[in-house]
Amino acid sequence: AGADGYYTKPYNEKILLSRIQSILSVPADRHNPEEIEVEFDGRRHHVTGYYHQILNLLLSVYENAVVQNRELTVIQEQLSMVNKRLEDMVEKRTASLTQEIAERERAEAALRKSEKFLQSILNNLQDALVVADESGAIKVFNPGAERTFGYSAEEAAGKRVSALLPDPYARQCEEDFRRFLDRGQSELIGRITELEGKRKDGFRFPMELLVSEMALDKERAFIATLRDITQRKEAEKKIQSAQTQLMLSEKLSGIGQLAAGVVHEILNPLNIISIHLQMLMKHKTEDPAIQEPLTKMKGEVGRIKKMTDTLLSFSRKGTGELKAVNINKELDSALSLIEKEFTLDNVSIVRDFEAELPEISADLDEMRQVFLNLANNARHAMRKKGGGTLTVRTRTFHSSRGDFARLTFADTGHGIKKEHLTRIFDPFFTTKPEGEGTGMGLTVLYGIVQKHGGTIKIESEEGKGAAFIIDLPVLANKKE
Questions:
Q1: pLDDT in tens, 406-458
Q2: Alpha carbons 48 and 176: distance in angstroms, whole number
Q3: Looking only at Cα atoms, what is the longest distance across the chain?
Q4: What's the pTM?
Q5: What is the DSSP letter of 3?
Q6: How many helices (H) and strands (E) would you count in the chain?
Q7: What domains are there in the chain, each with its CATH number?
Q8: CB under 8 Å to 77, separation ≥6 — which residues?
Q9: pLDDT tens digit sequence for 26-73
């Protein structure tokens, strides 16, 4: 390399010093060696040699330093390139991670927003929403369910859905659920069903149930929507009652229009028959073959006359005088007239009157007709049972339409068959044996009550008696 005896890296300190001493031991032309100072690894060393030896040593070291410097330069350039590539890779990866983190944060924010939105919907649903797992245990119980059933979400967790139903619905629900899991057949899942729910306090109420199957965390789950339909059922009853009242009104209106003409056509020949009958009966005869038919004919003529009078009541448009009527007083008076007669059939009358009941505006004669007719109907119903009790009750009744006096005639007879309830106010409909009634009594009462702005309805359970309920508007200035 241009000099003899030089030493290259890697080196050992002792070996290098030994090598330098070996170089300096080579004979030289100069006889006066020189001492030089050499520094290795931060420590100073002193050596003695001739100038040419020292020169060779320095040249060797210098040449080696140049070579190493070139190698270091190349390595430095390579390291710089590698470092640049690493920086680029880090920068790209950092940018990628930054974007990935931003996307994840956006996704998490969207998920939180979606969860909050869904939770808000769940919390604000008026209907009860219940989610159960495959075993039928409740996992989700929204605030609507808490309001509907009276359980808190914590109390409901783990309970079976059937715990929200009374028997026999609870048993049917369990059987249907097992059948669906075993065979995929169900009468409840996937359809709206009307049944009854049961609150925590045991109160039962009508409700609609819709059950759907869903996947929750890769497991089968069932979501049930339950709606309390108590108000809807009550509204349906009111609508049905109003429709019934309307139908009866239409029937009465038709009869009223027909009555006058029909009665006129009946009364003309009936009067002629009655006159001739009276003339025949003036001739005294002891022959029963003649007397008995005449007596029977007279009775039938009287019955026809009574029926025509009833028919005529439909064509009268309330010509009677309306005045303030004390219901309690007039009821007591009417019942007193018939009370002793009722005891003959072992029927007792119980008065349950509200004190200070407001007065009504009414035709007193027509009101008495209503009272006596309903009382006699009750007596007839209980007579077949061997007796009983007629309870006549008065109360003030408040509704959205105003204040009413409510009159109730409740007997302990056999009651009315369910199939007869919708026809009880129909003209000529009667449950009495032939010859004991015309079927017009309740129809006439219905017309009277309606003419006074009131309503009449019947509540009955076969075998447990019947109750006729009349609501009549009270006088506004007599409510105190």
A1: 999 999 988 888 877 777 777 665 665 544 444 456 877 888 898 888 999 99
A2: 111
A3: 202
A4: 0.43
A5: S
A6: 11, 14
A7: 1-122 (no CATH), 125-228 (3.30.450.20), 234-316 (1.10.287.130), 318-480 (3.30.565.10)
A8: none
A9: 555 545 666 666 665 567 766 666 656 665 665 576 567 667 778 888
